Amino acid sequence: MNVKALLIATHNPGKLREFRMLFREVWSDFPLELVGLAEVGIALEPEESGHTFAENAILKARFFAAQSGLPTLADDSGLEIDALGGAPGVHSARYGNTTRGQDAQRIALVLQQLKDVPWPQRTARFRCVVAIALPDGRCETASGSVEGYIDWRPQGEHGFGYDPIFYVPEFGCTMAQLEPVVKNRISHRARALKAALPLIRRLVLEQG
Q1: 37-72 pLDDT tens trace
Q2: What DSSP assignment string belongs to 21-89?
Q3: Which of 76, 103, 151, 163 is catalytic?
Q4: How far apart are the first and last CA of the chain?
Q5: Average pLDDT in the 122-129 region?
Q6: pTM score, whole prediction
Q7: Rounded to an integer, what distance in angstroms lies between the CA atom of residue 49 and that of residue 190?
Q8: CATH class label, 4-205
Q9: Is 76 marked active-site?
Q10: Residue 113 contacts by C-beta under 8 Å, 6 or more apart in sequence?
């Protein structure tokens, strides 16, 4: 079978690792080679100027598909906290004027903002939109989400980002306390990817 390449458009090594694990989980025999931005020599990054996860995912997918000449999967995802009016939302990765690698600072800011909010009002969700783009500009999206609460303190060693404070009632622990194989069955990114599989088959595997 002719194996095709699919570019995973992220500079975040944790996210790239997670997508590779997710593909193995949801599509064990997929005839695709997943490549990262570093592997194709792309260091550029577009400005994420969209106002929604979908707008940012499409923007990134089209940008990197044009840069690489490869079918590209991009996602935009983040944490929506009801008591904060949906924040940090599309600003999740830069919340509080932080930069890549400052997960602890973002978590500390969220916990400070919620310090007087009682448990029933600490509802939140992780949301993800996946965009699949081709170099000719065609692009389609799929989405997924998982509901939970913001815990009182960080717990767990797995995952990245806000995982240590995102409590999943179904399992009685934070996302970071779940084994990766479990997280990859129930996460927002896993659900978005599962919804995107028909798009990947049609746009990537069946293109000429």
Answers
A1: 988 999 888 888 889 999 999 999 999 999 999 999
A2: HHHHHH-TT--EEEEETGGGT---------SSHHHHHHHHHHHHHHHHSS-EEEEEEEEEEGGGTT-BG
A3: 76
A4: 15
A5: 97
A6: 0.88
A7: 25
A8: alpha beta
A9: yes
A10: 84
